[in-house]
Recover the amino acids of this structure.
């Protein structure tokens, strides 16, 4: 049973559901994507424009060199066109090594203090696995292991190149005109991720660099293969430096990093005067109810404050769906469980409705008491302001302190605000607004509850003041904010007609 009703006509239509918006979708939707989804004319898909989907080598070429599953590729092309009817693009991920093409000779690599001595494959053995002896270099302990051949380098780089060529040459031409191609997924040698067995030198030389050359030759754009959060920005940038890979990329892509990582990448790109996009093609695979309200506004506000243009910044939830079974992989980490919206999906419906506009700009003419400022640290209290044309939206996040539902203004005298008290108020000042310019003001909860708020003239006639109770009257919103330890709600200011 759904814990919350879907939003259908909240706040004078600002949060209305309804049919999927026609192209072009607004800036917030241009920012958002999802993994493994298929567009629908309702729900969170209204606020998505990018869909990331694996296009496995083994599905296209399961039997060996020169034998292609042409129908699989044709079906992929049809799916691209179907997505586009919904104003969305489908991005293929080129991966993994099909068993027959995986490296067959004996070889060794060292990762995280362990040496992997991979045995040569012999006829009659399973082509999808390789036997390996693993030696702990610190202790000398030796153990036997089976490695997934699909996560290994190819025996012949030319086989990998033939697969990439087949996909890119087909999908980049009319009527499909796919622009972005992602190479692999989460390769790293800081520690094995389960998606690459080898060193990053091997990965760059046998996978990334050959594929990037082919994608560029067909006029496509190269998306890095999702550098994973078991590494560091220093390591990631070092790989690109070592292999002189900067000019082989159009998109720097990372997975599950905090917003500070985007700032790090932005600083490096700006220093080098490069025009590279910055994406996260996997985020949010957590069963934490408050993830979307706490993270999405921060990342989007940062993006529109840093030289925004379409496709420069993107944010993909992992994933769209899981079975409606508590034992299922990814249960409650996605937008849907079965046909039911999760708290992630419901939260995106609320936020998407608030920010649905052709153009969204940062709005900074606000102050609060107790004091809150805009923070990129997702663990800190923050306010992000958005100007959506006919309305202003503030996303307000108040961090719990010491396990209590108590916001503390550490930077300005240590004043505190009890968030479980219906009488407590956060004062929000808008020094550049006049009462006559405001149609209505609402507090909006993370799942769409709403309550009208009064507007008062500011001190000395300067601007207006709104007192917002952090306390959530909706019991589910209140409990999920408590569980997330980051109390989030929205202040919606509807402007009077101009």
């Amino acid at each position: 049973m759904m814990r919350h009703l879907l939003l259908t006509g909240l706040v004078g239509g600002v949060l209305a559901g309804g049919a999927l918006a026609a192209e072009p979708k607004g800036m917030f939707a241009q920012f958002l994507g999802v993994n493994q989804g298929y567009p629908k004319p309702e729900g969170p898909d209204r606020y998505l424009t990018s869909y990331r989907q694996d296009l496995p080598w083994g599905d296209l070429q399961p039997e060996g060199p020169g034998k292609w599953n042409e129908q699989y590729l044709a079906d992929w092309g049809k799916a691209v066109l179907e997505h586009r009817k919904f104003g969305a693009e489908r991005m293929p991920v080129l991966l993994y090594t099909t068993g027959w093409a995986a490296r067959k000779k004996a070889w060794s690599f060292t990762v995280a203090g362990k040496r992997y001595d991979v045995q040569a494959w012999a006829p009659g053995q399973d082509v999808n696995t390789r036997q390996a002896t693993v030696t702990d270099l610190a202790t000398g302990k030796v153990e036997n292991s089976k490695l997934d051949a699909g996560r290994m380098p190819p025996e012949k780089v030319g086989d990998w190149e033939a697969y990439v060529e087949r996909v890119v040459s087909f999908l980049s031409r009319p009527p499909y005109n796919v622009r972005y191609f992602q190479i692999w997924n989460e390769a790293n040698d800081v520690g094995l991720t389960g998606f690459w067995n080898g060193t990053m030198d091997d990965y760059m030389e046998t996978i990334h660099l050959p594929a990037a050359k082919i994608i560029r030759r067909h006029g496509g754009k190269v998306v890095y293969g999702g550098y994973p959060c078991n590494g560091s920005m220093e390591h990631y940038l070092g790989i690109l430096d070592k292999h002189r890979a900067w000019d082989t990329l159009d998109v720097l892509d990372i997975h599950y990093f905090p917003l500070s990582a985007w700032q790090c990448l932005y600083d490096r790109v700006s220093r080098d005067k490069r025009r590279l996009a910055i994406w996260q093609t996997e985020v949010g695979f957590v069963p934490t109810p408050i993830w979307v309200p706490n993270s999405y506004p921060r990342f989007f506000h940062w993006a529109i404050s840093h030289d925004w243009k379409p496709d420069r910044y993107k944010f993909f939830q992992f994933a769209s769906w899981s079975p409606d079974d508590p034992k299922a992989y990814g249960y409650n980490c996605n937008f849907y469980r079965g046909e039911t919206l999760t708290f992630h999906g419901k939260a995106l419906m609320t936020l998407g409705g608030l920010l649905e506009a052709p153009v969204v700009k940062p709005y900074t003419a606000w102050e609060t008491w107790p004091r809150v400022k805009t923070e990129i640290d997702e663990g800190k209290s923050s306010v992000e302001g958005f100007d959506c044309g006919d309305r202003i939206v503030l996303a307000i996040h108040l961090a719990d302190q010491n396990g209590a539902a108590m916001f503390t203004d550490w930077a300005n005298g240590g004043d505190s605000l009890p968030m479980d008290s219906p009488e407590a108020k956060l004062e929000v000042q808008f020094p550049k607004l006049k009462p006559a310019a405001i149609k209505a003001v609402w507090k909006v909860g993370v799942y769409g509850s709403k309550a009208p708020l009064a507007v008062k003239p500011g001190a000395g006639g300067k601007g207006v003041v709104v007192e917002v109770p952090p306390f959530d009257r909706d019991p589910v919103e209140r409990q999920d904010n408590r569980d997330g330890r980051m109390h989030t709600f929205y202040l919606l200011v509807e402007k009077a007609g101009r």
Q: What stands out?
A: Residues 77 and 147 are 33 Å apart (CA to CA). The chain has three domains: 27-98+156-355, 104-151, 363-495.
